[in-house]
Design brief:
Blueprint (H helix, E strand, L loop, with lengths): L2 E6 L3 H11 L4 E6 L3 E5 L6 H4 L5 E7 L10 H8 L7 E8 L3 H17 L4 E3 L9 H6 L8 E9 L2 E10 L2 H9 L13 H16 L11 E4 L6 H8 L3 E6 L2 H18 L8 E5 L14 E5 L12 H25 L4 E11 L2 E3 L3 H4 L1 H4 L1 E3 L7 H4 L4 E3 L6 E10 L5
Parallel strand pairs: 5-6, 5-7, 9-10, 9-12, 10-11, 12-13
Antiparallel strand pairs: 1-3, 1-4, 2-3, 4-8, 7-8, 13-14, 13-17, 15-17, 16-17
Helix pairs in contact: 1-7, 3-4, 7-8, 8-9
Length: 408
């Protein structure tokens, strides 16, 4: 089975869960700190696949099964770039190696190439690997101008691979910042997190999606806001249903989806979408049920500092009622439809405050909590995942709810 190394985002527990949910034969082998996971899969994971992941920065595929040492690296690099015409550009991404060893490797690799008549240059430094933009722009992912080698040192063992995919930061920035309708007054769902939620939704419906083997879904977001989840779903070729209690949000979502269709050439006859105004606590009247609900419900007001326990308890009480009414509505009017949602988590001087009343009622409402197999429950506590950026006082609890009721 091929071996891969994934360099994780700033929420590594969520990144591993997403990989486990997305790769049908994901075999977790080792987790190295909070940055890297080594895993096995028979799938051909490439740049196209990584575009569907929100929690992984880069993926490398092991280049050699035989034991290698640092002295072998220059020769391995020469072999990897033998098909490159003209000047070679290369990069090294190390883990578990001191900066001096990486610096020396850059020099010896460059000298090795030059000694065989190959002019060369490198990008990145001994302390900071080349950023993903450079990997794309310099042709190191498709091999047209060179490559990046990944070197992972574990005791006496050296794992050597070639980077096959890296996040396209410019693409994220474009659809996050250039979409015509944005509302900075409310908490903005990051596009990468929206991708993660969608992958969890696909997992609830189909099990693991399985590398590049996309399966068409119809995704419903009943708290759509400006349309971050619908945008990411449409980019996957999935049909979109979206609603919101705010008419302003409905119009914003419609504008953004129209913009996305134009930017990416997505015809309506191939990928359908419908956006309307509705309170998510009122009965859903759809001609056909969606495959799954994926949504950021509401996080309540943003906080600039830790909330006093009394204030957090007040916010919690109001949110408990909304979440329960919403889920009871789903169970009653969309039986058989599973839900991936985010719930607020408030950070106070006394610790976290999470929703409890609605949690205790999930079974009676017709849902069971699900979570990918690779998640370490000793770390997460209850079987959910908490997403929180540094400096945030309201986090997101990702809840995956499998419907236990039969579809009508």
């Amino acid at each position: 089975m091929p071996s891969y190394a994934a360099f994780l985002g700033h929420q590594p527990h969520i990144s591993i869960a997403e990989l486990s949910a997305s790769i049908r034969d994901f075999e977790l082998q080792r987790v190295l700190g909070s940055e890297v996971v080594i895993f096995g899969s028979t799938l051909d994971l490439d740049a196209t696949y990584l575009q569907t992941l929100g929690g992984t920065v880069a993926i490398a595929r092991k280049a050699h099964d035989k034991p290698v040492t640092l002295e072998d690296v220059p020769g391995l690099l020469r072999g990897e770039v033998k098909g490159v015409a003209g000047k070679v550009t290369f990069s090294l991404r190390g883990f578990g190696l001191p900066p001096k060893q990486i610096r020396d490797l850059y020099r010896t690799c460059k000298n090795e190439l030059r000694s065989h008549g190959r002019p060369a240059r490198y990008v990145g430094t001994e302390r900071t690997p080349a950023v993903s933009v450079l990997l794309h722009d310099e042709g190191l992912l498709d091999g047209s101008h060179g490559c990046e080698l990944v070197l992972i040192k574990e005791g006496d063992d050296l794992w050597v691979g070639r980077t096959v995919a890296a996040q396209d930061v410019n693409a994220y920035a474009k659809r996050d910042m250039e979409k015509p309708a944005r509302d900075t007054r409310v908490g903005l769902l990051p596009p990468k997190l929206a991708q993660i939620l969608l992958n969890f939704g696909a997992w609830l419906v189909h099990g693991t999606v399985g590398g590049n083997a996309e399966k068409e879904l119809t995704v419903f977001d009943p708290f759509c806001g400006t349309g971050v989840v619908p945008i990411e779903a449409m980019l996957r070729g999935w049909n979109v249903l979206a609603s919101d209690d705010s008419l302003k949000a409905v119009h914003a979502c419609e504008r953004n989806l129209q913009w996305l269709r134009k930017e990416h050439g997505i015809p309506k006859k191939e990928v359908t979408s419908k956006v309307w105004k509705q309170d998510a606590r009122k009965p859903f009247e759809l001609k056909a049920p969606p495959d799954v609900i994926v949504t950021e419900t509401t996080l309540g007001p943003p906080l600039e500092k830790k909330a006093p326990l009394k204030e957090a308890s007040r916010l919690k009480t109001a949110m408990e009622d909304l979440q329960e009414e919403f889920l009871r509505n789903v169970a009653a009017t969309l039986p058989g439809v599973s839900v991936v949602a985010t719930w607020p988590v408030w950070y106070t001087s006394k610790g976290q405050v999470r929703l409890e009343k609605v949690w205790d009622k999930l079974h009676d409402m017709g849902f069971r909590v699900a979570i990918p197999a690779a998640v370490d429950l000793e770390i997460t506590g209850r079987p959910t995942l908490v997403y929180r950026r540094p400096g945030q006082y309201v986090g997101r609890e990702i809840v995956m709810l499998q419907s236990t009721r039969k579809a009508s």
